[in-house]
Design a protein that fits this description.
Number of helices: 5
Order of helices and strands: EHEHEEEHEEHEEEEEEEH
Shape: rod-shaped
Largest sheet: 6 strands, mixed
Strand order of the largest sheet: 2-4-3-6-1-5
Radius of gyration: 41 Å
Distance between the termini: 129 Å
Oligomer: single chain
Number of strands: 14
Mean pLDDT: 78
Helix content: 10-25%
């Protein structure tokens, strides 16, 4: 028993065309800053016709290959208004792929997984001057269709261009970032050094808090000076050397003798090495002298 059927060749559904690439500055007409700020290219109208016939899935994503330098990147498409046989790329994308004006580039359609994670590293520490870098990056990534691991993208903010290296992407080395919830992390910028903080030495208070207390009023116990029974004055101290009694310092009691326009700083003072050496000399040290040898014995 024979079965009859018709054999049809399988139709290649992939779009793969070679174009001459140029930077956006070479595009005829007005200057297109919107193309420079994003990760999308401008293709000729014939590419749209081929993509429509091939039933390419949306969003349209493309793989760019520079066979001479063996460089690969991914991008989206912004418009189909380029001259036939030409594509226009952002300047930062031309640098990533080591392309010059008029070089040949292979453009292929591709499907990429939706991104869930990406990690960036600023090329310069100047990126830390931005108050909210995540918000700035999120706003700039709206002009991108996909990310490729190893690329260095350009972010323009406040009339300045910052370069960010894509260190990691998940779930693959190339991801689609259109309508996705993606976690973003930043690595330390290249050449960044953490500031050094010097620890202050422990210092003693130069001002006794008890001196700031108001003078005691009324009866003060043990406020007088001691007297000898024989009426003589002590040799080691005089009445003028006796310090006046101080009130006990209590937190929260204001200084009633405060004068407007003055500020009192309660700082600590360190003891110098000279004072420490003097104290050590004054202290009694047993067996600190030199020994003597008895006659006839060693």
């Amino acid at each position: 028993m024979f079965q009859f059927g018709f054999m049809f060749p399988e139709i290649n559904r992939n779009f793969s065309v070679s174009y001459f690439c140029y930077s956006v500055a070479m595009l005829p007409g007005n200057e297109r800053q919107d193309v420079e700020r994003g990760g999308k290219i401008i293709m000729p109208p014939s590419a749209l016709e081929q993509l429509t016939r091939l039933n390419i899935s949306y969003p349209m994503l493309f793989k760019l290959t520079n066979k001479k330098a063996n460089r690969v990147s991914h991008c989206g498409v912004l418009e189909f208004v380029a001259d036939e046989g030409k594509v226009y790329l952002p300047h930062w994308m031309m640098q990533n792929m080591n392309l010059r004006e008029g070089d040949s580039i292979q453009v292929e359609s591709i499907d990429l997984p939706v991104g869930t994670f990406s990690k960036f590293q600023p090329v310069s520490p100047d990126f830390l001057d931005i108050t909210n870098p995540k918000a700035v990056l999120e706003n700039c990534l709206r002009s991108f269709a996909c990310l490729t691991k190893g690329d260095v993208i350009a972010v323009k903010y406040n009339q300045k261009i910052y370069e960010l290296s894509v260190l990691e992407t998940k779930p693959g080395d190339a991801i689609s970032i259109i309508e996705c919830d993606m976690n973003v992390e930043f690595a330390a910028p290249i050449g960044y050094k953490e500031p050094e903080f010097r620890k202050k030495e422990d210092e003693e208070m130069a001002v006794d808090p008890a001196d700031l207390m108001p003078e005691p009023s009324g009866f003060v116990p043990f406020g007088g000076t001691g007297n000898r029974l024989d009426g003589k004055v002590r040799k080691d101290s005089t009445s003028s050397d006796m310090p006046a009694p101080k009130a006990t310092y209590v937190r929260g009691i204001p200084d009633y003798d405060y004068q407007i326009g003055t500020i009192t700083f309660m700082r600590k003072s360190t003891k110098t090495n000279n004072t420490k050496d003097k104290e050590e000399k004054d202290d009694f040290k047993p067996f600190s002298g030199s020994g003597n040898v008895l006659k006839g014995r060693i």
